[in-house]
Each structure stands twice: as structure tokens, then as C-alpha cells.
Design goal:
Number of helices: 4
Largest sheet: none
Helix content: over 70%
Order of helices and strands: HHHH
Radius of gyration: 27 Å
Length: about 170
């Protein structure tokens, strides 16, 4: 059961969280690119990339909400969700002004200040989920190793017992 839990519960959660980080990084790159591009089509492509990453993260957060059951995991996820809300508010404010060339300086200041800080806090809280799952997998992996060692010892003892019984039966026959 421990190995099953690692394979079907713990590890998939780390994949989900890594997807959250990948999408967060995509949003950061797209934010930067919006300020760098002058071509409206390229800016629109970055806005679509941001929208797609946000939608994907909403799906991934829902998966975590549905599968995280431990008290510690729920606490970490709740903190990550709160950091996500702060980031989303600042991102919305950034996107509202970043498209306007007259607001480029204000958008840059927001991007390099409060939005960047919120992004780093969000990434830190998401990384805490990975660390929690990693620590839990390590602990459960050690338990699985101990169980395997116990099973191996039991098999060795049973093999020796079977050999002794076979020798005893052979002695009785002879």
C-alpha cells in the first residue's frame, strides 16, 4: 500500500506542482515580453499565453484541492492559494496597464516591484508543496524498504524451516 500511495498519490502531486511552477514561469516571461514587444500581435500572443497558463493552473489547483488530505498538506495548500490570490490581483492590475504604451513605465515599476515580490512568494509557497510531498515520499519509501526487508527475512526463515522439515521427513523415511 505504501508503494501504491507513492506512485499514485504522492508523485502525481509533485508533477502537478511542477506544472504550477512552469506556468508561473510562463506568466513571468510573458509579462516581460509584453513590455518588450511593440508588435500588437506578439503582445496579444503573450496575453493568450498568460490566459492559458492561468486556466491550466486553475485546473491544477483544483486537482490538488481534491487530493490533498493531510492536515499539513491542506495548510500548505491554503497558504499557496492565498499567495495565488495576491499574485492574481497584482497580475490583473499589471495586465490592465501594460497594454497601454503611455503606462509602460508604471507597468514596469509594478512588474519589477510588487508583482515580482508576489510571484516569488507564490513560487515559494508552491515549492513548499513539493518539499512536503518529497519528504513524505522519502518517509514512505523508507517504510516500504523496511517492509521489503522484513518480507525478505520472513522468506529466508520460512525457507530454512522448510529445509529442516524436509530433512526431518527424509530422516524419518530412511
Amino acid at each position: 500500500a505504501t508503494i501504491e500511495k507513492i506512485i499514485h498519490d504522492r508523485y502525481p502531486k509533485t508533477v502537478i506542482v511542477n506544472t504550477l511552477i512552469d506556468n508561473l514561469n510562463q506568466v513571468a516571461r510573458s509579462n516581460r515580453n509584453i513590455l518588450l514587444w511593440n508588435d500588437p500581435q506578439k503582445i496579444e500572443a503573450e496575453l493568450v499565453a498568460i490566459s492559458d497558463a492561468r486556466a491550466a493552473n486553475t485546473t491544477e489547483y483544483k486537482k490538488l484541492e481534491d487530493t490533498v488530505k493531510s492536515e499539513t498538506g491542506i495548510k500548505i495548500l491554503t497558504e499557496a492559494t492565498a499567495k495565488r490570490a495576491v499574485f492574481a490581483t497584482l497580475l490583473d492590475r499589471f495586465l490592465a496597464i501594460a497594454k497601454d504604451p503611455a503606462q509602460k513605465e508604471a507597468a514596469t515599476t509594478l512588474l519589477m516591484g510588487d508583482l515580482r515580490d508576489a510571484q516569488l512568494e507564490k513560487k515559494k509557497s508552491i515549492s513548499a508543496l513539493i518539499q512536503f510531498q518529497s519528504d513524505t515520499m522519502t518517509k514512505e519509501g523508507k517504510a516500504a524498504d523496511q517492509l521489503a526487508d522484513s518480507a525478505q527475512n520472513l522468506i529466508a526463515i520460512m525457507s530454512i524451516a522448510a529445509l529442516l522439515i524436509a530433512l526431518f521427513v527424509a530422516w524419518l523415511i530412511v
